[in-house]
Amino acid sequence: MTPTRSSWPRGRTGSPTRKKRLRRATKTRNPRRSDPPDAVTGKPARETPQRRCIVSGASGETARLIRFVLDPARVVTPDVEEKLPGRGAWLSAERKTFEGLGRKNPFPRAFREEANLPEDLAGLTERLLRRRCLNLLGLANGAGLVTAGFEKVADKAGKGEAAVMIVAADGGGTARERAARLAGPAPLIGLFGREELSLALGRENVVHAAVASGRLADMFLRETERLSLISGSPVDW
Hints:
There is one protein chain. The chain is of the alpha+beta class. It has eight helices and nine strands. The chain folds into two domains: about 45-120, YlxR-like (Hypothetical Cytosolic Protein, Chain: A), CATH 3.30.1230; about 125-230, CATH 3.30.1330.30. Helices cover about 40% and strands about 15% of the residues. It has a four-stranded mixed β-sheet, sandwiched between helices. A hairpin with a 5-residue loop joins β3 and β4 (about 75-80). α4 crosses α7 and α4 packs antiparallel against α8. It is elongated, with a radius of gyration of 27 Å. The model is unreliable at about 25-35 (pLDDT under 50).
């Protein structure tokens, strides 16, 4: 006699509880891999924001671009902290990107509405970036991450505890040479004068300073790179 196949759906086999345990064990044995976090954003590297420069059309990481928004009067405004509300447009932080804006304004097309350029947009952006850098340095100082004074900085550098070295731009050739010898592999920043550094750190006549590693040091480095690009000044003096 030929066996007949049942028309009833085949029932599930095995314990549901056991299957759940097996799934959990598999996840534990094979954890999902993720990219290491970006030093500045804290997000995985693959999630680092990419934006397009409205002048060159080239895409890149926001660490080398600057965001702009429209204020209520429809004037283009730099958003160096990338927090202002509204539609944003991005420009490369390089100085040459700003040089042709007076001849051809790309912002109306980017914003799809009237967008007026302020006088000396490059100068305004540079001043805002400079202020942001010094504010970050002040925050790092308040968190106990900044050391000032050559002897103290030399001690930190000797122990490998200086993630960022700073020398005053108007400190003179000798101060720069001494800072360069101390810095070693640490980046050396020479974009700020003694008066600026002294005001940011609440101390007198600051020529040499060092910042310990951490998120604030990473943010400070990011902003000094953008400041260097728009000012046209080398970051190390």
